Amino acid sequence: MKRAHLARDILEVIALALILFLATRLAIQNYHVENVSMQPTLVDGENVIVNKLAYLFHPPERGDVIVFHWPLDTRQDFIKRIIGIPGDVIRTDSTHVWVNGVLLNEPYVKAPYNAIANIWRLGKDQYFVMGDNRPDSDDSRNWGVVPRNYIVGKAIAVYWPINRWQVINTYPAVFAHIPDANPQTTSK
């Protein structure tokens, strides 16, 4: 009798552990930073926690650092900061970025740099992303927008190496004064 009870207890513990493991894998994942495009916020070799359920009840926001499938090869995942959301107009010159006519004061940028001046108008479900290390970032300035369904989740914290542990700052004050996008643009 005790042996059957012990076997059932072991099976229950294994089943519970499996359920917890699967639930955790559905909700979060880790991402290994493999380049310098997000310096100084994230450096090569760090591991971050990605909340895959972050956008279940609200859309991605400007300033969020996201992991997404690269539009040119969806087998690769990138990590960048959202600068523009659906309906926004992004404009750059050699060192500045404007969103809907508002010049961004970006304290997270390592070195301001844009190879060319350009203007992008974002359609429905389109996000404009840039790395914080602008001179060394392959981002929306080069290959275009990120579709909403390519976003894996929001990077929320660095967990490794342990001496670099930090919650990832989204700098809400940088984007607080940007007017809402033109509603006609978002309904495309």
Task: Indicate the low-confidence ranges by residue numbers.
Answer: 184-188
**Share of residues in helices:** 10-25%
The separation of the N and C termini measures: 67 Å
Q: Which whole number gives the mean pLDDT?
A: 90
The CATH homologous superfamily name equals: Umud Fragment, subunit A
Query: Could you say what the CATH architecture is?
Result: Ribbon
CATH class: Mainly Beta
Number of distinct beta strands: 12
- Characterize the main sheet: 8 strands, antiparallel
Give your account of this protein's structure:
- This protein has a single domain, classed as Umud Fragment, subunit A (Ribbon).
- By secondary structure, it is α+β, with helices and mostly antiparallel strands.
- Strands 1, 2, 3, 4, 9, 10, 11 and 12 form an eight-stranded antiparallel beta sheet that branches.
- The protein is elongated.
- Strand 11 (151-160) and strand 12 (166-167) form a beta hairpin.
- It is built from four helices and twelve strands.
- Mean pLDDT is 90; it is low at 184-188.
- It catalyses: Cleavage of hydrophobic, N-terminal signal or leader sequences from secreted and periplasmic proteins.
- The active site is at residues 37, 80.
- Its main location: membrane.
- Pfam families: Peptidase_S26 (PF10502).
- It is found in: Cell membrane; Membrane.
